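Re-run with default settings, no changes from the original entry. Doing this only to confirm the output is reproducible before filing.
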Amino acid sequence: MGKGLIIGVVVAILVIILGYFILNNGEMSSTTEDKNEIEGTNDNTNTGKEETGENVITITSAGFGPKTLQIKQGDSVTFVNEDTAEHWPASAMHPTHTVYPGSDIEKCGTVEEIKIFDACKGLKQGEKYMFVFNEKGKWNYHDHLVSGLYGTVEVN
């Protein structure tokens, strides 16, 4: 019976390793974000540029990616919801959205809406929101619908 138990444990370990390997698309190494969580660092700064040169921030249930995006003054950023839940990117602070100059949630639904850093609604899966950052600075933003999801756009 001792030999059967050892074989069972070895098989169980192999199944767990194989399952992990399959779930990670064949990659056994951890990602930078995984390492940052383990090491307690938070260097998620990224250019966020796809091959097209467009600045893109994706939104998933885990949050915004990249969490910090560096762009040049006058560049646009497109937020893309890749989650099944709705997400609403907007300038900090919740609930007023007034940190980015000129932005205010009270301007949603007015002619001023196109000038503010605020999607003014929840984005459904696959929907996009684009904003042009004309002001230099570090602009914090958040998800108006999901507490705890936030990021920063640094405009140089």
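The longest helix spans residues 2-23. The CA atoms of residues 2 and 58 lie 51 Å apart.
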